[in-house]
Each structure stands twice: as C-alpha cells, then as structure tokens.
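Forwarding these from the shared drive since the link keeps breaking.
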Amino acid sequence: MPTQDMNSSLDYHREIERSGPVSLQTKLFYASGELPGAYMNLAIGGFLLLYYNQILGASPAAVSAALGIALLLDAISDPLVGAFSDRVRSRLGRRHPLMYAAALPMGIFICLLFSPPQELMGALLMVWLFVFLVLTRLTFTVFSVPWSALIAELSEDYAERTIISSYRILVGALLGGLSGFLIFNFWFGATEQFPQGQLNPDNYSFFGPLIGLLMTLWSLVSTHFTRREIPYLLQPTESSRPNFSAMLSLILSALQSRNYQIVLVSILIYFGILGTLGQFDMYINTYFWRLTGEQIGTIGLFGILAPILAFLSAPLLQRNFQKHHLLCFALIVQMLLSMAAVAFRLSGLFPPNESVWFLPLLGSFSVVGGFLSVVGAMVVFSMTADLADEQEYRFKTRQEGVLASGIAFSTKAVGSVGVVVSGFLLEFFIGFPVGQTATEIEEDVLFRLAITDAVIVNCFVLIPAFLITRYNLTRESMGVIQSELRSRRSG
C-alpha cells in the first residue's frame, strides 16, 4: 500500500454510505461507552482522595499532587492517541483496535489502585498510588479518545449529533447513577461503628475489583456492538506513517480554528474549576452536609431524573436554541444553584438533617444542577462533532480524534491543576484534619470548606460563560458546511 507523511492531507471514504438515521440499537451501544468513565470518575474523583487521606492516613496535599501529576501525564497522551487514531487504517477501522486493546488493562490497573499492600506506608504508598493512577488513566485514554471521536462519524446531521450525545449522557447517567446508588447503599452501608460507611476501611476491600470489572465489561460491550458500524465510518484511502513530529503538527493545525480555540479555552477554565470542586465533593457531603453513604446514594438516585429530563427536552432544545447559547445558560445557572444551596445551609434556612424535607430539597438541587450539567455536556459533545466538519471544510482533513483529544487534554491538564489546588486548600487554607468523623470537625473548618467550594472557586465559571458567547458556528452555517462536504465527497 502507498504511504503518506502525516503532514499531508488524506482523503477519506466510507465503504457504505448511510442512507438513513443511526439506529436506536447503535445509539444505545455507543452510549454504553460512557459507563467506564462514569465508574472511573466515581472511584478516582469521588473516593480516592478520601480513601488515601482519611483511611490510609496520607497527606491530602501529597495525594492531590500525585493525582494532579498523573492527570497531567494522561493529558499529554490524549492528543497523541487522538492523532494516531485519526490515521489508523485497518479492517476494524480507525477507532476500534485501540478500544479493544484498552478494555482489560484499565480494569486491572484500577483494581490495583484501590488494593495497596497493607505494609506500604509513606513514600512507598505514594509511589503505588502514582504508578497505578498513571496506568489507569493512560489505558482509559486509549479507549475513551477513539470512542469519543466516533460521534462525528456516526452522523453528519447537525440535529442528530445532539440526539446521539443525549443518548450518551442518558445511558451513562442512568446506569452510572443506579450503580452509584447500589454501591453507596450496599457496598458502603452504615454500621454501628461507622454510621458513614464511606469512612469504614473494610468497605474498600473489594471496591477496586468491582470498579475494574465494570469498566472492562462496558468498554467491551460498547466496542463489540458498534463493530457493525465500521463500514459506515470514514477511513483514510491510503496508509500513513505514524510519527511523532507529524502528529504534533496535526495537533497544532487544529488550533487554527477560532471556534475551536473558544471551546478549548472555555473548557480548559471550566474543568480547572471542576478539578478543584470534584475533590471537595465527598468532603462536602460527608462533613458539611453530614450525609451517610445511603443518603449520598439516595441523592444520586434523585439525580437520575436529570438525564431523563435532558434527554426528553433535547429535541425541543436543539430546535429552538443555538448550542452555545444553551451552554452559556447552563454554566451560569448551575453556578448560582451551587452557591444558593450552601448559602441556605449557612444561614439556617435549609431544613435540618432530621427533617423529612431535608433529602427531597437537597435532591431537588441535585436534579436541577444535574440537568444543567447534562445539557452542557450534551452540547459540548455535539459542538465537537461540528468542529470536525468545520476543520475538514477549511483544511481538507478529518481530525475527529485530534479535536476530541484536545478537549480531553484540556480537561485533564487543567483539571490536574485543580486537583492539586484542592489538596493544598484542604491542608493549608481550610486546615482539614486526618481521620475525623463528621461530628469532630470544628465549625470554622466547615465554614472555610463551604465558602471555598461554593463561592471562591465557583465564581470563576463566569469566565467560560462569557467566552462561549463568542462562538459563531450556528445551525445555518453548519448547513452550508455540511452541504459543501457532501458535494466534495460525491465529486
């Protein structure tokens, strides 16, 4: 087969041209690929800092530094994996070989991450944490970047991409939320000694193997049952040599798009915020709200309503609003809700934990905030697919993997900074102690935790909300772009 340098543009073709919409079965099996990330985020984003800090006794600053560095290394791998997957030519297409290869290793590595030998302490424990964090994240990247890039290939329809994104979010949130409810209620259930099961060391014994099994299982399901779509997906007409310098050139070329720059910078700032807030979540739930594992699971079950509402409203929203307008609205209102819940609690307006209204009210905040978060994520996924078309229209090359990995790189690179910041804030600004129950934490510590989470960090959301208003890919402009692309391919 002839070869090309990766700096040159490639022609792409489909073995079979799709004649109708993507089938419901394909949408559902594609969407199931959201679950490995949901389980990893639950484990690493929700439990890991609490486990290594409060259970194993490690410094929160040291744990967050390990988390941040591992996330940064993972981020660097994203564009490389994306660029490589864009150029792969095989009987399994561009994406599926990498997705298959990652399934088993990422399950094994996250299992080991939550199963350190009992004799490990101090620096050796940190080495174990760091090594298996890096390996877990790198193998997950090999699955998730090609999988995320598929959405731009499954459909060229502006509206259908939003619908596919809504399925992705719906399935991930529903099954992920249900799994979270079951894990919190049965895996981290209360005992007489540990009314808050998330602080019980015994509950972590088989947590890692469970998460690893679920991640491997669902990645294989999504990969295997989307194989039949391979003939409909774009493939390079010729082989290309994968070399580092050429892949770097492709990555840099993607930054020529003003709209991509706007999305990238907005997401970069937003996920820096989320990286910080995400590490606070379990502390806020356990110590500020004083929730048991069962109550956290119940609120998570409330949250299942959010993706259902987002899914049902997706057709109406995509018909009546531009994507970037929806994203801006979701960011601002979500920020205000987060501030309001904490403000009501601090001012004494929130019902006490013993009230029958406590969980329903807190769950309502979770549902509305979750709905806005789902809408925002749905829109971002759809916008990324549109950006791939704009890139091909302007520069005559398909870079779904590069664009998706650029987004992933931004979220992880800046998220890593946020993770590090959260640990240092916990240790040096908030002054959070080690090995404490919820009733043992001083009120001034809880106040600093709440204000840092709800106000100091959260208000930075205004920056990406403003930036995204400068995005100018609309329904009308995408119609022109896609018409031209169809004409080029048919000609």
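-- next protein --
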Amino acid sequence: MSIFRFPEKIPTFFYLIFFFLLLGVLSVVTPLISNQDIGFIISIKDETNLSFSKIIDLHFLIYKAFYSIIGSLMSGQYQILRVINFLYLLLIVFITYKIIKLKFYDLDLWNPIGAFLISGGILFSFLTIQGFLLSGLLNLFILYFLFKTLEENKITNLIFLNIFSLIAFLMGNFYCLVIITVLSLIKLINFKLEKEKRLSIISNISFLYIVAIVLLIISRLDQETSLLNIHYSLKLVSDRLTYIIPILLPLTGTLLIAFFFNIFKKLNWNRDLLFFLLIIVISIIVFIFSEEMNLGLLVFILPLISIYIFRTLEFVQMKWTKLIYLSLFIIPILIIYTDTSFYLSIENLPFENYLFYGFVILFSLFNPIFFIQAQSIIEIHKIALFSFIMVFSLTAGFFYYQYNDQLIPNVISQTLENDLKCSMEESKLKIIENESPLLSLYFEDNIYLNFEPECNIQLTFTSLTDLPINDINSVNKTVLDLNQKSFININFKKL
C-alpha cells in the first residue's frame, strides 16, 4: 500500500493552491442551485423594493455595489458574483492566522489552515451567495478582538469588538452575543480581576445587549425573523445532526479523536484549548436548535475545530483510532446517491455515470484506515486532503460534462435558436406549470416584453412520468431541474 502514501510527501501549501484553483473553476461552472441564491440575485437587481433589513445588511450592500459595477458585463453569468466569496475566504484565512498567533504562537500555521479550508462547509458556503462566509468571518473577528479585550487594556480592541458586533447585529447575526457573554462571564469569575476591568467588561456587555434588543425590536417591526427563535422538533434535531457530519468532513472523525485525547486522556490540557472546545460545543448546540439553518455558525467553528485538532494531536501517533476515517466514505455515497436520484430508475443511467462512480470510489480508497502502522495527524490529514480534493475535482468535471447542456437556461436558449429559429432578444416566453424564480432571473426580459416580438413561445413543464405533449408543431426537451433534483420535460410550442 506504499503507492498510496505519496500524498504525505506533498506540501500542505500545494493543496491550498490547488484548492483555490478548484474553487475558481467551480465558481464559474457551477450553476445556481438554491432558490435562496436566485431570490437574492433578483433582490440585488431590483432598484425599487429595498426593505430596511436590506439597507443595513453589509452582505447585501457589498453585492449590490459589486453588481452595479459589473452587472452590464455579466450577460446572464451570475456565477461571477461568487468572486466576492474569495475576498471573504482570504479574510477568514487572515483572522485565523491572527488567532493562532495570539493563542498558540508555536503551532504550525498551514496545516490547520489547510484542514479547515478544504472542508465540506467551506466548499458549500463558497458555492452559495447567502452570506454564510461573511457571517462566519464576522464571528471570528469578534472572537479575536474579544480575546484581545479580555487580556489587554487597549481601547482600540474594545472599539473594534463593538464595530464588528454592530455589523453582525445589523445582519441579523445575534449569535456573537452568546460567545461574548460566556467568555466574559468566565473572565468575571476571576476574583483577582481589577475593579476597573470588571466594570469595563460589564458596561460593554450591557451596551451590546441594549443595541441588540433595539435592533431586534426594529427587525420585528419590519417582519423579519429572529435567530433567537428556538425549535425543539426531534426531526429537526436529527436532520441537523445528519447535516453536520458531511459539512465538517474531513474533520468530523478527527474532531472526535481529538476530543477523546483532550478530555479523557487530558492531553494538552490547558485553558485556551478548553475555551476553544467550549465555543465549538456551544456553536453546534445553537446550530442544531436554531430556527433557520445558519451555515455561518459552522463556517465560524471550522477554523476553531482545525486549531483544536492540530494542537491536541500534534504529537500523537495514531494507529487503530484511524478507523474513524471510515466517515470519509460518506462523501462518495452522497455523490452517487445524488446523481442516481436524478433518474427515474437505475436502468436509465448512462454508461459514463458508472465509470464516474468507479473513479470516485477509487480515489476514496486513499484513506488512512488502510495503513496499519501508526501515523502523525499531519500525515493522515494529507492523505484525507488528497482524497477529498480529487473526489470533488472529478465530481465537478463530470457534472459539468454530463449535465451542463441539460440545465434549464441552456436548453431554453439552445432550443429557441436551433430548433425554433428564434432569436432570444425577439422572443416572448409564456410559462405553463412552473413558477421557479430561475426563469424570472434568466428570462425576465423575455417574460415581460413591452413590444411585439417576432416569436411567441409557450413553455409547458411536465414530469417525465407524464406523456410528453404530442404536437407536430412543438418540440419536447428533457432537462435537469436542480430545484426538483430530477429530470423533467419541457414542451416548446411556437404560437
């Protein structure tokens, strides 16, 4: 099995470079998947309907400004908006570096940074434009300046803490109050704390709570939901727990190992590391029970998890504990399940799909569990990183090759021009049995034309289980609807 150990020889920095290149490619070729992303883009295009919550939302304002600059150059390629996520991600790397230097100055930098960057949570958050990365970034800045405020008597730290907290509040992110409160209370328990420092901490917490309550009241008046709403549904809890596992991969299993060594064997037993563990646990609990699934919480704790793992296990040689890396096989299972779910039955799967499944499984065999001898956490994680990157690179390439021409916007454009001989600019579309915001985003000008077009096209959407419309004057096309996660039929009829 030594042939499978060459990933250990590759520097971590190389993995980071390759991953950023992969993110660049994915940002361009990956279509908009969620209705939330599509609705967000529609809202930033809208020049008239601006609510109070949007005006005070930094994420919305950044995207609004960016779209106003390059919107005319996009020509329907809305994926370009993801370039903002690169800025968020670089700032997350920067503040993670600052946190490491502040709390664990002797810890190797690139391994924990590489570990959290190349994770399911970062990858998924990057491919959306929901502001999860910015939310996590703000919480990291707040945590950093909170540490500085509690340890140093510099007014600048307090000012930055309050500024970033205020920005988070305006975005509806009140979770930072939980972290500020918990760590401040731990600091206040110290009876040797100076009176002036104690009063400063209490007064600042009081100020932040007053601001948060005022903004919560305003948001309620604006009919916005609050992150403070808690749900206790057993199904919701189980769904969130199931969701956390792939999102935290490939760190999920390693976190459990680090927890075991840190708590039960008291390895690297120190206050700062226990603070990190406390924040991780609190964040996961809030994520599980909060009303809305806020991936920003997981983006926030991913760097902390990575630091916690590498500080705890930096001198541990793991052998049988590597069995926890069986969790990595969740990735190919999820990918294959997702792909097969597009089709009505297994018989409909093309031969190329089976080849793809074979290669995904092959790269998944780059797994630490197949090596009996003990290995360090760095060696183990490099093997996991290689497997993770290769699987996702292969998946991205296959999905683009196999399905890009079958996506709804592409099929509609190609059918109008090639089959119906109609130019997109001179065609009006009448939509039947489909209310997807995707059509409003990509074909707004064709749905709401204010002049007489050369072509009037009626689009009728049906499932593949229904018989396609049999009309010699119409064209039927099979398309992949990512919102429904299945193939459907579109009937094109020239009126």
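The chain has three domains: 13-315, 324-405, 407-494. The chain has 21 helices and six strands.

- D.
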